[in-house]
Structures are given as C-alpha cells and as structure tokens.
Design a protein that fits this description.
The complex is a heterodimer. By secondary structure, chain A is mostly helical. In chain A, about 55% of the residues lie in helices and about 5% in strands. In chain A, strands 1-3-2-4-5 form a five-stranded parallel sheet. In chain A, strands 7-6-8-9 form a four-stranded parallel sheet, with helices on both faces. In chain A, strand 4, helix 27 and strand 5 (about 565-570) form a beta-alpha-beta unit. Chain B is α/β, with parallel strands linked by helices. Chain B folds into two domains: about 1-200, HUPs (Rossmann fold); about 220-250, no CATH class. Chain B is built from six helices and 13 strands. In chain B, strand 6, helix 2 and strand 7 (about 80-85) form a beta-alpha-beta unit. The longest helix of chain B is centred in the N-terminal third of the chain and has 17 residues, at about 35-50. Classes of the chains: A mainly alpha, B alpha/beta. The interface of A and B includes residues 415, 428, 434, 439 and 522 of A.
C-alpha cells in the first residue's frame, strides 16, 4: 500500500477500526515521527547537561521501591494535583486524555509494524469507549482551565504568559481535530451503511465521535473524504509539533513532574533541613552562586509550572512582603539558571566571564556571570522574609523543596558573607552566651519552676533521673513570663495523670530551631550536640515537648546527629491519649466559643491536627474553625527565626500576626487557642490592638480550666 | 593607618555572679569581649575597610583572654598581642602601664578603646594610657571622623553633644552608639585561626590600689500582702509605712 490507501469500510465484523484508512501515504507518518522523537531526546540531553552543571551533592536514589510507588501514585492518581479540586480534576482529565490517546496511537503504530495487538470485537468497543470519553473530558478540562486562567483570573495565576494560551490552544486543537476526523470517518461510514445497525457499535465505541459525525452526515461523500485526509495531516502536524515543543516550553513539566515524584525527599515532612557534614572542616557554607545548588534544586526550578498554589498560601506574599515563592524565588532562580548555565557549560576550559564575553552580543545588559545570586537574583529581602511555614511545600503539586533553598542561601549570608539583620546577630550572640534567644542568663533557666510553684512536681535530672518523660520545656517556658503559665498548666496536667516528669533545668539549652532556620548551622549544631549529650548522660529515652519548634527539632532533626534518636512527643499527643484512656478527666464543660490556630510546626511539619482538636472537644467547648485551618493554616509570622526579626511591612500592608488575628476574629470567638509559644506571643500582640475582649490561650491552659 | 585596639575580657553581662571565699567564682561563667571594646574593634575594622591599614588587638589578661583576641580577629582585626597577666586583681594603674608599654612599641596612629569595662566600670585605663603616652584623648565618642592627621570626635555631654578635634596619634574611647559590632562569619573565624597572636610578658609593675571586699546587692524582698476589710487594711498599710518603711510624716 505504498501509494494507494485502504478505503473506509462501511462496517467491520468483528467491530474494529482500520488504522490509516482513507489516508494516502499514511506510512510516511512513521518516518516523520523520527523527528519529534529525536528532538525530544536532544532536549532531554540538553536538560540533563543543565542539571549536571550543579555542583551541590544530594543522593536521591535510595529506597527505590518507595520511589517507584511515589512516582506511580503522584503521576497516575495525580494525588497532589487534585488537592485543588476544580483545576486539579480538569488536569486529571487532560492528563489521562492525552495519556490514553497517546497509548492508543502507540497501539495503532505497533499494529502497523507487527500486526499486533488486534483491537477488535468487544475489546475494541470498550477500549475505544474509554479513550473517546476521556479524550472528550480532556477537551472539557482544557476549556475549563482556559476559563479559569482567562475569565476567573485567580490571583495565583498572576503571571500568565502568551505561551500559556498558545499551549492550551495547541492541546485543544489536537483533541478537537482528533474528534473531527473521527466524526468525518464515522459520517462516511454512516453514509455508506445500508443498514444503521451495521455501524451501531460505533455509537458505543465512540460516543463523542458519533456526536461529531452528526455535523457532517449532510455533506457529500467526496468532501467528507477530502476533509478527513486534510485534517488527519493537520492533526498529526499539531501533535508532532507539540511533542517537539515539550523540552522548550512549560510542557517540560511532564518530564520534571514525574522526575520529582520519583526523586522527592522521602524523609519525614519536618526533616527537610539537612546538616552540613563535618562542619568543623567545611570550607564552604550554603549557596552563594547558582552552581552551588544541587541538581535536584535545578530540577525543581524547571519543575515549577507556575500554578501559584504556593503563593496562595504564603503568609509573606499574602501580606505584601518581597517573598513570593513562585515569582521571586523559584521562577527568579529558573530564569537565572536558564541564563547562566550555558555560560557555565561553555566555560569549561576557559573562564566563565570570557565565555560570556565571547557569547554575548548585547553589551548593555548586566552580564549574567556578574549577577549575584544572593543580592541581584533572589535578594536578601526575599531570603529573610520566609517564615518556614511550609505552606508552599505542602501545596506544591511538584514537591518542589522551597525552604531548603532559602536555608542554604541564609547559611551563606550568615556564615560566609556575615550579612544578616542586626536582630539576628543579637539572637545568635544570646544563643551563644546564654543558650536562649532572649539572652537571659542561663543560670536562671530553672528559676521559673519556683516562680510558678511547680518545683515539687518535676524531677531535676541532675538530682534524680528516674522519670517517665523528660519535659523539654524550651526557652519560652523558662524565660517568657506569659508562657511560664503554660508550663505550669502542662506540668500540673501530667502530675494529675500520675506521670512523672523530669527536667534538665539549667542544663537544658535552646533546641537549635532558631539558629538553624536563621542559617547559623554552626551554632545550631553546637546547641543540638550539647543537648544530645545531656540527654544521653541521663539515659533519657522519652521526651515530651511543649514548644512545637522544639518538638520538630528533637523529633525530626536530632536523629540526623549521632546519638540523637529519642522517642519524642508533643504534649498534645500524650494528653489526648490520657484523656482517651480516662486518666485525665475534664470536670466541667466550659461551653466557650473558640477558634483554634494550627501552628506550622505541629501541623504542616508533623501532621498533628486531630489530637489538639480532640482535647478541645473534651473541654466541652464550641470550636469554630477559621477559613484557613489545618494544612491551609496561616502562619503567625514567627517561624523560621522571624520571631526575633523585625517585620518590615510595606505601606498599606498588614503584619502577618495582625492578618492571622483578623482571620481568627472573623469567627467571633471568646477565645483563640494555640499550641505554640511563638503563636501565643504573636496572636496576643494581635488582639492587643482590637477592642473585643478576646483571650489567647494555650490548649493546656484551657484544659486546666475545665479540670477545676 | 595603623590602629591599635585595647580589649578587655569580661564576664558575660547576663552571668549569675556568685561569691566564693570573698572572690567572684568563675565556675560556669562565660567570658566575652567587653561590649564597649567590641564597638572599638568594629570601628577600627570599619576604618581599615574604608582607607586601608592594619588593626592590632591588644589584650592584657590570663590564658583565656586568647578567646577574646580570636574573636576580634574573626571580626576582621589583623593580629593580636596578648599581654600575659595572671593576677586578676591588678589595678587600673598597673594595667595602663602594661598596655602603654606594648602600645608604645606598636606605634599606632590611632588607639581605640571602649570607654568603660562592663565588669568593674572604673573607666580609668584608656585615660591613664593617654596620660602615660602623652597623647591627646577624647572620651565617650559617639561619632568619629578621621581627617588629615587629625580626628573629629563627637562626644556625649550632659544634655547635649560636643564636637572636638584631636591630633593623631590619639587615644579615643567609644560609646556603644558609635556602631553596631558585626557577628563574625565562619569565613572570619577560619581566617582568624591563621592570624598571628604575639604573647608578651607584662612589664613588672606594682598595683597602687587593691580590692578589700566584694559584696552582692541585697536580695530583692518579697512583696507584702495585706488582707482584710478596707478599714483594717488601710490601718495596717499606714502602720507598715510608718514603722517598717519609716516614711517621714511632715506635719
């Protein structure tokens, strides 16, 4: 059939579809297909070269089994994508539509070469039905996605580019021409059929093709056949053209998403900050230049599809700060990568600046090689704005790891450039000299026990190390007058439940969270190793914390260090269990209307959402949720070490804590409940400015109220 | 320009002071650079960064004083001179003589110091050094501008400020508002390990004054709570004020 073609049959028995019917030179398509495949492979090669230009090291080839499962789940079930229901499901249809149609085309091609598999009979009808339906849903998906982007225009899509529209249009055109040619083919079959029953199986096999066919049955047979041929080639041209575009447009996310699902950080959610190994001997600290990032970071830059879910949940962006995880972080880095890496690659053998001089034509532009990553590309404002709330990472459908990049850049600013906000400097000095960010003398760390009258209810480890749990109270419990009352409530609750608590007293040091998240890894490791040594000195196995920052550090970060493996609980986990076991029995229902603020460290970093709510329920209170709760909870503004930094709010914008307070007050509560000393401080500050008599309490304080 | 900075190692300002056998116990106490001297180090480094030169840190103290010198070097000073003084009770006179001896040898164009030490607070040493070396002296400076062979110093005076000019070399003492000392980066700390510290013996000199006794401030008294009916509590309060606080009542 080199020059001729197979005519369209009226009908087949058993039901099937002849591939390439009515298309002269149909075989040419298999020759032409070499072009998109070659371009795709070339693009892949170029991209891998780009990613390999990164110098940072990271191993993401451990636990292959888990990785395959992750790849499978997030690719084929689109498990992260559908977290945003409307756009997510539309994308699901689009994804499956193209996947199945591509598979169907592949099966057709296979059949062409090896005459197998045979798509016929009921199998043909079923397979065709699924493909036809999902293809149509894909088309619906594209329309809805277009409406979202161009009509609804949500803020998260605030950087729409013309290519976004062209790609939507191209994808739509592929599906649309596909249905038209199917419709034309069926129309031809209908016109030729002497009896409708003969072709009736197509109504089931291709229900949407059948609908399209109804538009053409009135046309002459000749024009149907001619248009069928023309549009078949147009369809193929569109499809191949789009494949060619994959490596050079946002369609590359097809590859990067799957790569990221496979190569993501498999560790616990709260363990994304990695230690600098052998820090005493280290010669570089953090990321100063683009190439100091790892290949995984580069892959992340390319994986960003600009869906804006990060920005939709970012407290810095939503209150008008410089940081926008999509635009001023990841996309800024992607642009820099795309611009700089060609020079880095060209520079092998000659200096990078020379390479750029040789390659650049525009003499006016600031040379990419001279742009500073920290000061020109990302900027220090952006780097310091982040509260480490993890909302971006929680909601990113690509598993992009935003915070580790921020931390790496902070590490370089602090430990190498020596450039940091002066408040950070003072915090470090306080931590160095007195092991707490307040800078109160370390020898006073246990004084609060007497102040709050609970000294007889805990055992000081140096005097008696026989206890059920070690209470790691953290710096706030020791030095923040407001939070000392929470410490008192927690200790009394455990005492009432008959559980013995130990306490390190003056031997306890800051958990490391503030130092680490502000980029001072050296100081953080000094504090962490000191605490680990003290724990092991007293044979500590089980630790209960109150501050969620301590909790995350001890639970998820200490195991990164030698001897740092302990059983770590947040007090809400234990108290919820003690209530369930009847060992803590609330005496009266409080009947208070309250709202609950999920701290980022307990919530998004450790998925503890339910236990605190169970405790609130046990107090007989009436919980009214804020609009942003659980994994969408809005940060108080104090995370990532920002508790100790000034918040420079631009004119017309609110502070993060005031914004969160407003969200809480919108539920009209008598009481705002928190589980974190930083949140407590921030929200307490927030309600000071308002008239309404709203109290901010820790969960433990509320429970204590219902105990008496 | 060669700048010499005198630094003293003091107790951390938040340290809990405990007396043992009439002396301050050093157990568990962190030692730091006197915060006022830290400002002097920072100022010297800023001058060097602006116009070039060398910053020499001079510290008189025991073995642990090396830590203070290293920290100044990590901030950006170029080298250190450690005058070994093992007796912590040397007085300000003896200290000034020891420092002056080394400073004379160094021959700096500018000598910077903190205006007071956070521990004993005597504010004597820099002034004595200036006197011994016969150099011009400006105290408690909040702004320092260097000109050709001279320094223009803005000083805090009661309720206002004074601008004075001194010829260089001079001894200038710094107030904390002069600048904000930097936090040493790891780069600075690594470089500091390679910077030289010269150990010199102190010149033999007898103290002229000696400490006889040290005492801690009296512990804060707990508050007094008066309970009862208003007429009763009023009476109790008045009696307490009269008899125990000993308020004088003017007729």
């Amino acid at each position: 059939m080199l020059f001729g073609f197979i005519p369209i049959d009226v009908w087949s028995e058993p039901p099937m579809r002849v591939v390439g019917a009515n298309i002269p030179y149909e075989w040419l398509i298999y020759l032409i297909a070499v072009i998109p495949v070659a371009v795709l492979l070339y693009g892949l090669y170029q991209k891998v070269r780009v990613y390999m230009a990164a110098n940072g090291k990271v191993n993401r080839l451990d636990n292959i089994g888990t990785r395959i499962l992750s790849w499978f789940t997030y690719t084929f079930a689109q498990a992260k994508v559908i977290k945003n229901p409307l756009a997510g499901w539309m994308h699901f249809f689009l994804f499956w539509g193209f996947l199945l149609l591509f598979l169907a085309a592949g099966i057709d091609a296979m059949h062409h070469f090896i005459n197998w598999p045979h798509l016929e009979g009921n199998f043909y009808i079923g397979f065709s039905f699924v493909v036809d339906t999902i293809g149509f849903l894909g088309m619906v998906g594209l329309i809805v996605l277009g409406i979202i982007r161009y009509v609804q225009k949500p803020d998260r899509l605030n950087d729409t580019k013309s290519s976004d529209g062209w790609i939507l249009l191209a994808l739509f055109a592929i599906l649309f021409t596909g249905f038209i040619i199917e419709g034309l083919r069926i129309a031809a079959q209908i016109k030729m059929a002497t009896q409708m029953e003969l072709i009736a199986y197509e109504r089931i096999a291709s229900p949407f093709g059948w609908l399209f066919a109804q538009m053409f049955v009135g046309a002459t047979m000749d024009s149907i056949l001619i248009w069928h041929r023309i549009l078949w080639w147009v369809h193929m041209a569109l499809a191949f053209g789009t494949v060619v575009a994959i490596p050079f447009t946002k369609l590359w996310h097809i590859a990067t998403s799957m790569a990221n699902y496979f190569l993501r950080d498999l560790g616990p959610k709260g363990a994304y900050i990695k230690p600098i190994e052998n820090i005493e001997e280290a010669e570089t600290f953090g990321v100063e230049n683009l190439e100091d990032f790892t290949w995984k970071d580069f892959l992340d830059f390319d994986a960003c599809i600009r869906c804006g879910r990060c920005q939709d949940n970012c407290p810095a962006y939503l209150t008008g700060k410089h940081l926008n995880p999509k635009i001023t972080l990841i996309q800024a880095l992607k642009k820099h990568m795309d611009e700089k890496v060609p020079y880095l690659l060209a520079a092998r053998g000659q200096s990078a600046v020379e390479a750029e001089m040789a390659m650049t034509e525009d003499e006016e532009a600031k040379p990419v090689m001279e742009q500073s990553l920290l000061y020109d590309v990302v900027t220090t404002d952006v780097i310091w704005d982040c509260t480490n709330c993890r909302a971006c990472m929680e909601h990113c459908p690509m598993f992009i790891e935003h915070i580790p990049k921020i931390i790496e850049m902070r590490r370089n600013l602090v430990m190498w450039q020596g450039d940091m906000p002066s408040e950070a400097q003072m915090t470090f000095t306080n931590l160095e000299r007195n092991y707490n960010p307040w800078g109160v003398g370390w020898a006073n760390r246990a004084d609060w026990l007497n102040e709050r009258g609970v000294a007889d209810k805990v055992k000081i480890a140096s005097e008696d190390s026989d206890f059920d749990y070690l209470l790691f109270g953290g710096c706030a419990m020791a030095f923040d007058d407001r939070y000392k009352r929470v410490g008192e409530a927690v200790i009394k609750l455990f005492d009432q439940a008959g559980i013995t608590l130990g306490y390190l007293g003056t031997e306890e040091q800051h958990c490391g969270d503030t130092a680490r998240r502000l980029g001072n890894e050296y100081l953080a490791q000094t504090l962490i190793t000191a605490n680990i040594e003290t724990f092991n000195n007293y044979g500590v196995k089980k630790i209960v914390t109150t501050c969620p920052h301590c909790y995350n550090a001890l639970k998820n970060e200490y195991p990164q260090f030698e001897g740092g493996q302990f059983e770590v609980y947040h007090y809400t986990e234990l108290i919820a269990q003690l209530i369930a076991e009847g060992k803590i029995k609330p005496q009266k229902a409080l009947g208070i209307r309250l709202t609950y603020h999920d701290s980022c460290m307990l919530g998004r970093h450790n998925d503890i959402y339910q236990q605190p709510r169970d405790i609130l329920a046990a107090t007989g209170s009436n919980l009214v949720e804020m609009e942003r709760n659980r994994d969408k909870g809005f940060c108080c503004g104090a995370g990532g070490g920002r508790m100790w930094l000034e918040e420079h709010a631009a004119e017309g914008y609110k502070r993060i804590n005031d914004t969160r307070t407003e969200q809480a007050l919108a539920t009209n509560p008598e009481c705002i409940i928190t589980n974190c000393p930083f949140c407590l401080t921030m929200l307490d500050d927030g309600v000071k400015g308002v008239e309404a008599p709203v109290k901010v309490l820790d969960i433990a304080e509320l429970l204590a109220q219902s105990m008496n | 320009m060669k700048i010499a900075v005198c630094v003293k190692q003091t107790f951390d300002t938040e340290a809990k002071i405990v007396l043992k056998d009439g002396k301050i116990s050093g157990d568990g106490i962190n030692l730091i650079i006197n915060p006022y001297d830290e400002v002097a180090v920072e100022e010297a480094i800023r001058i060097k960064e602006k116009q070039g030169g060398e910053v020499v840190v001079v510290c008189a103290g025991g073995d642990r004083a090396t830590e203070a010198i290293r920290q100044a070097l990590a901030m950006g000073a170029d080298r250190g001179v450690h005058i070994k003084v093992n007796d912590p009770d040397v007085d300000e006179y003896a200290r000034a003589v020891m420092l002056a001896e080394v400073l004379k040898e160094q021959g700096a164009d500018l000598i910077l110091c903190g205006h007071v030490a956070a521990d004993d607070g005597s504010s004597q040493v820099p002034t004595r050094v200036a006197e011994i070396l016969g150099l011009p002296h400006a105290n408690v400076v909040t702004k320092l501008e260097l000109g050709d062979g001279k320094a223009v110093c803005t000083r805090e005076v009661d309720g206002g400020m004074e601008v004075m000019e001194v010829a260089l070399p001079a001894v200038i003492t710094c107030q904390v508002s002069l600048n904000e000392p930097r936090y040493p980066s790891m780069k600075g700390i690594m470089q500091a390990k390679k910077k030289p510290i010269a150990n010199v013996d102190a010149v033999a000199v007898e103290s002229k004054a000696k400490i006889i006794e040290l005492a801690l401030p009296a512990a804060k008294q707990a508050g007094k709570k008066i309970e009862g009916e208003p007429e009763d509590t009023g009476k109790q309060l008045a009696e307490w004020l009269l008899n125990e606080v000993k308020v004088e009542v003017k007729q």
